[in-house]
Automatic annotation (TrEMBL):
InterPro entries attached to this UniProt entry: SfsA, SfsA_C, SfsA_N
Organism: Candidatus Erwinia dacicola
A GO term, aspect molecular function: DNA binding
UniProt-recorded name of the protein: Sugar fermentation stimulation family protein
Organism domain of life: Bacteria
Ranges for domain Sugar fermentation stimulation protein C-terminal: 44-94
Residue span, SfsA N-terminal OB domain: 1-40
PANTHER family: SUGAR FERMENTATION STIMULATION PROTEIN A
C-alpha cells in the first residue's frame, strides 16, 4: 500500500465492531496533496462506478440496457467488474 499515500495525504478509514475480523479498520480512500482521489477499498470503488453507470454519469458508457456485476468470462474463467450490454452495440467489459 506504500504507493497509495505519502506523508501529508489525507486518508479515510472505517472501523468495524465485528469480532471475527482480523483487523478492526479498513483503509477506504486517500486524497493526495495534488487533489487526486485513490479508492483503496475496491468494494467501495465498484459501488461508486456502479452508481455512476446507472445514473449515466460516464458519457462514453451511457445507453447500455443491462449492467451485470462480477461476470466471469473466457476459458481461464477470469472475472470483470461489470459487463454492459445493449442490443444496438457491442458488449463492454469493465
Amino acid at each position: 500500500m506504500t504507493g497509495h499515500a505519502t506523508p501529508g495525504d489525507t486518508v479515510w478509514y472505517s472501523t468495524s465492531a465485528s469480532l471475527t475480523r482480523k483487523h478492526p479498520h479498513s483503509w477506504e480512500l486517500t486524497e493526495t496533496q495534488q487533489g487526486d482521489w485513490i479508492y483503496v477499498n475496491t468494494l467501495r470503488a465498484n459501488g461508486l462506478v456502479r452508481e455512476a453507470l446507472k445514473a449515466g454519469q460516464i458519457a462514453e458508457l451511457f445507453g447500455y440496457d443491462t449492467l451485470l456485476p462480477e461476470v466471469k468470462y473466457g476459458a481461464e474463467n477470469s472475472q470483470i467488474d461489470f459487463l454492459l450490454q445493449a442490443s444496438d452495440r457491442r458488449s463492454c467489459y469493465i
